[in-house]
Design a protein that fits this description.
heterodimer; A: eight-stranded mixed sheet; two-stranded antiparallel sheet; 8 helices; about 30% helix; B: alpha+beta; six-stranded antiparallel barrel; 13 helices; globular
Chain lengths: ~250, ~475
């Protein structure tokens, strides 16, 4: 199947839909990942600012969401301004965020306690508009709640990232429920880049774009955030066709 | 007569109420000071003022030796009722005051438990107050001394015995005060606390001819009061750090709302919004007669020049977001992390105020750190070569994992200046990856050779992304 249709009529229709969707004047500002293969899959060529995005971990990481947190940290590190990070459990280790490029001076943590307070703080932060990004760790995200968050993000132009994190691996089926978020990602850990000497190389992730409004789902194998919060493609895939293979397999399944 | 004692005197066997001549005979060289009730009352007022600024909008001195604080709606800002009491006792102890504290349903009950309760700090759950009170002596009821003595002559020792008797004969004998005090302690009769007002407090008030109750009306008057208050603040060149809004209800109760700000503020709109966020916590009952708005903490606020966008990008102002969140969930649950010079991972992070100035530095460790650090290291079963190899397999939470690659050891020494036990304690940290690609931060307590450096057991401490 062809992934991109570039006929003028379709383009015009897309532009009209875009105009209908974006009520606020913040337009279509995006934050590119800086990886061509990834940005190509996202409408506008990057992660939409002024929108809600969801990130979850894969397999065992659904409980800890360690890779998901680093992925979110990498995105927020490339925004400007302070970052509000709403926690349900206080086990996030700040030095790791600093190593993903998110400096400690920029992050304000909120230990909200229960799920409801997390959502309240999340929305309050998104609505404010002076922040660079708002990240919240939530388990359950209803359609109504996510719609509120998405509207708040649209009105202020702040990017919101919901890290979905559950207490039990079985609860992770919740991730299939529809929400109003613009993109939905799953980050699973993969064995690190092999080194010629004993040791652990740069971590790798399988990055699945499960849902993307006005775009198609895809998945990628990437190297984890560097000290500036940037992802990278593994060397052997940077020019090869393997990434496409993965995408096709996903589309067929 | 002896009115007060310090610990040394108490251990020498002296008691309150002994005649002065007798104690001088008992302990030679005893230091006696004349009682100064006026100074005591003044000190108590100062303490009440401190409690007002630090703890809750309604606080008052309860002479001769007590302090009463209405902690309704204020406890969560200090981490719950238990934490509030512990903090209060610790702070008082730091300034040399030994205190007994209790939280209960009513002023009378709290008075009784603080003075006659079994423990020095006591939180009585909401429903248990009246029941637990029955075991306390009559003297806990704040009755005149003569009345307590008369009652004991009649054979009453405990509050429970008094409560079980028919009321009429005793009320006839002792007057209405006896049962009023009992009802107040049981929470059946309201007893308003008149909060301490320091001289020079910036306060505005509004008296209503007709009691008000609708949220819209309250919002409107909050707006009017804040603009009045801001005018006074501006004339003084101050900004509010803490505002107390008191609602005097027609049934003689006071409802209170307190908000705090991270920096001095005298922007009427912002203060109104912070106060209006709390309206839902107010129970107007049959109506509100008087509203009083006071700036219990005010600091100088000088006008500041705005940053010109020609020279630099103006930094977005987020202090009002911080205020909103802090007033909603509590100040200490909102923080920033800052590096602290410590090799022990869990000690390398300190919490600082969210509005603190930027530090501009980060953790200097070049080694990867896990994204999640478990609150306490979890013990794991391992198969490892000693002394300096990473494990070959380990079992954590019932799942056995084979290690495919590992980095380490990174040796962390105990901080001997903190406690003696850490003098030679050692942890060897490894970063390991299992077959599925999951990466963990594990350590062995001890250096693998010398049993004095640690238990040589393995723990899992963090999870990498």
């Amino acid at each position: 199947m062809s992934t991109f249709v570039t006929r003028p009529a379709v383009e015009e229709l897309r532009a009209r839909i875009r105009r209908l969707e974006s009520t606020a004047g913040h337009g279509r500002a995006v934050l590119p990942f800086g990886i061509k293969e990834l940005d190509r899959q996202l409408p506008g060529g990057g992660l939409a600012l002024g929108a809600l995005h969801e990130v979850a971990g894969g397999s065992n990481d659904t409980i800890h969401a360690a890779a998901a947190a680093l992925f979110a940290a990498g995105i927020t590190a490339r925004t400007k301004g302070k970052v509000l990070w709403c926690l349900a459990r206080p086990d996030l280790f700040a030095p790791a965020l600093a190593q993903a490029g998110l400096m400690p001076d920029r992050v304000i943590y909120v230990e909200a306690g229960d799920e409801k307070s997390v959502l309240i703080c999340f929305e309050e932060g998104l609505r404010h508009g002076g922040l660079g990004a708002v990240v919240a760790e939530v388990a359950h995200l209803s359609l109504t709640a996510s719609r509120r968050l998405q509207l708040a993000a649209e009105s202020s132009g702040t990017v919101g990232i919901a890290i979905r994190r559950w207490r039990q691996p079985t609860e992770a089926a919740d991730f299939g429920q529809p929400t109003a978020s613009v993109t939905r990602w799953r980050v699973s850990v993969l064995p690190a880049t092999p080194l010629p000497v004993p040791g652990v190389g740069r971590p790798r992730w399988r990055l699945e774009l499960i849902r993307c409004r006005a775009g198609e789902s895809a998945d990628f194998e990437v190297e984890a955030c560097d000290a500036k919060g940037r992802l990278a493609l593994p060397a052997k895939l940077a020019h090869g066709p393997a990434a496409k293979d993965i995408g096709r397999r996903h589309a067929a399944s | 007569m002896v009115l007060a004692l310090n610990t040394a005197a108490r251990s020498a066997g002296l008691r309150i109420g002994m005649p002065a001549a007798k104690v001088q005979a008992l302990v030679p060289g005893l230091i006696l000071r004349d009682a100064d009730p006026a100074a005591d009352a003044k000190a108590l007022d100062r303490l009440a003022l401190w409690a007002l600024q630090r703890y809750a909008p309604i606080a008052a001195a309860d002479p001769p030796d007590g302090l009463v604080i209405d902690a309704t709606g204020a406890a969560h800002l200090h981490g719950g009722e238990d934490a509030l009491l512990k903090g209060l006792v610790a702070r008082l102890a730091a300034s040399g005051i030994v205190a007994r504290v209790a939280i209960a349903n009513s002023w009378g009950a709290a008075y009784a438990f603080a003075r006659y309760g079994a423990q020095a700090t006591l939180v009585i759950p909401a429903g248990d107050s009246a029941k637990t009170l029955l075991d306390l002596p009559i003297a806990a009821l704040r009755l005149p001394k003569t009345m307590v003595e008369d009652l004991s002559v009649l054979g009453f020792a405990r509050i429970g015995e008094l409560a079980a008797k028919p009321r009429a004969p005793l009320a006839l004998r002792f007057g209405p005060q006896l049962y009023r005090r009992l009802d107040q302690a049981m929470g059946r009769l309201r007893e308003p606390i008149d909060p301490v007002r320091p001289p020079g407090l910036i306060e505005v008030r509004r008296v209503f001819a007709e009691p008000i109750g609708a949220p819209e009306t309250i919002t409107r008057y909050i707006g009017k009061l804040t603009s009045q208050l801001c005018e006074i603040l501006e004339a003084k060149g101050h900004g509010a750090r803490q505002l107390d809004l008191l609602f005097h209800r027609v049934d003689n109760r006071i409802e209170a709302v307190r908000i705090g700000t991270a920096r001095p503020v005298r922007d009427g709109k912002r203060l109104t919004r912070l106060l209006c966020d709390k309206i839902e916590t107010i129970d107007p009952g049959f109506g509100i007669e008087i509203m009083r708005l006071a700036a219990t903490l005010a600091e100088p606020l000088a006008p500041k020049q705005m940053v010109s966008s020609l020279t630099e990008e103006p930094e977005a102002e987020i202090s009002h977001l911080i205020d909103t969140l802090a007033n909603r969930i509590g100040e200490q649950r909102l923080y920033r992390c800052a590096p602290l010079a410590s090799d022990v991972p869990e000690r390398s992070v300190q919490k600082i105020a969210p509005a603190a100035p930027d530090i501009g530095e980060t953790w200097s460790d070049p080694w990867p750190r896990p994204a999640r650090l478990l609150p306490r290291p979890e013990s794991i079963e391992t198969l490892a070569l000693l002394p300096d190899h990473p494990p070959v397999t380990f079992t954590w939470r019932g799942i056995r994992r084979r290690v495919t690659s590992a980095d380490g050891p990174e040796r962390v020494f105990g901080e001997w200046w903190k406690q003696d036990a850490e003098l030679i304690a050692v942890r060897d940290y490894f970063r390991v990856e299992d077959e599925a690609g999951e990466r963990f931060w594990i350590y062995r307590s001890g250096d693998g050779e010398d049993a004095t450096t640690g238990s040589q057991r393995w723990f899992l401490h963090g999870i990498f992304g």
